[in-house]
Design a protein that fits this description.
Keywords: Membrane, Transmembrane, Transmembrane helix. The chain is an all-alpha fold. It has one domain. It is built from 14 helices and no strands. It has helices at residues 2-28, 42-50, 56-66, 72-81, 86-91, 97-121, 130-142, 147-176, 178-186, 192-200, 205-216, 222-231, 235-243, 247-274. Helix 1 packs across helix 3 and helix 2 runs parallel beside helix 4 (72-81). The longest helix has 30 residues, at 147-176. It is globular, with a radius of gyration of 19 Å.
């Protein structure tokens, strides 16, 4: 029952944001396949929006990317700057103000640099995702008279999916055991960014809480906590796999996100050692 209740609360928190996103989709109609001419600002806005506590921004970004409304660089910038439940946890510690600011600054700057680099160097444009658009078009055609109800119906499908997947993730984490995850992180200093980034990919708030708690207790490095929280996009990854096609593209995005997170974690650890 505890697993179910936690999953229900997590899904309920995301639902209002999803309704807003889908209302915008349906209101725009065919225009949702276009993108802003000034899309180069996407990574900057994405990085700033992503640093808002919890994973609402990453969920919205996944839906927008699947609909072809934002670029890959913007999506990555949101994912990298998102920290899921880490910030609310840190705020419960009165002496962590300087660390929170440092963490947000590092993640935002890195997110902007990566997002802008991806869009500029690879000349990435928002795509026309026929899979997502087809689903959206069917919803609009059936409920043109009430776009709000149509958006609620579609968002409910996503929320149910998130609820089921979150329940499964809670069970998996319970079976593995948080103690085991802690031991993986504590085994070797030089491997912490790699392990932390892998744990951060788990689309569940437990991962960000665990990584943050271990850092606050002095058990893992600053590079490790940054690496883990850069991959900690939470439910945004689940929505990406549900809404976006092909699946192979989503797997590539996850791999890129992991590598980028490990890189910044290793760099930060090296800087600490050199200093």
């Amino acid at each position: 029952m505890e697993f179910v209740l936690d999953a229900f609360i997590d899904a309920l928190k995301i639902w209002p944001l999803l309704v807003i996103v889908y209302v915008v989709f349906e209101f725009m109609g065919n225009q949702r396949t276009t993108y802003l001419k000034n899309h180069r600002l996407g990574p900057v806005l994405g990085a700033i929006g992503g640093c808002i506590p919890q994973c609402g921004a990453s969920v919205a970004a996944s839906s927008l990317y699947a609909a072809g409304s934002i670029t890959l660089g913007t999506l990555l910038s949101v994912f990298i700057s998102t920290s899921d439940e880490a910030i609310p946890l840190m705020l419960t510690y009165r002496d962590q103000g300087a660390f929170i600011i440092l963490l947000l600054v590092v993640k935002i700057i890195y997110a902007i640099l990566i997002g802008s680099f991806v869009d500029k160097v690879f000349d990435v444009k928002p795509k026309r995702n026929t899979y997502s658009l087809l689903k959206c078009s069917k919803a609009c055609d059936c409920h043109e008279s009430n776009i709000v109800m149509s958006a609620i119906r579609r968002s409910l499908k996503v929320v149910v999916f998130l609820f089921i997947m979150t329940c499964l993730m809670n069970v998996v984490i319970w079976v593995i055991g948080e103690n085991v995850l802690e031991q993986w992180l504590l085994r070797a200093y030089k491997w912490q960014p790699f392990i932390s980034a892998a744990i951060g990919l788990v689309p569940n708030c437990v991962s960000s809480i665990l990584i943050t708690q271990l850092y606050l207790e002095g058990m893992i490095s600053f590079g490790a906590v940054v690496a883990g929280l850069c991959t900690g996009a939470g439910a945004g990854l689940l929505v990406l796999f549900k809404e976006n096609r092909p699946i192979s593209e989503n797997l590539k995005i996850v791999c890129v996100l992991y590598v980028l997170s490990v890189v910044i974690g290793v760099i930060l650890n090296c800087l600490v050692i050199l200093s």
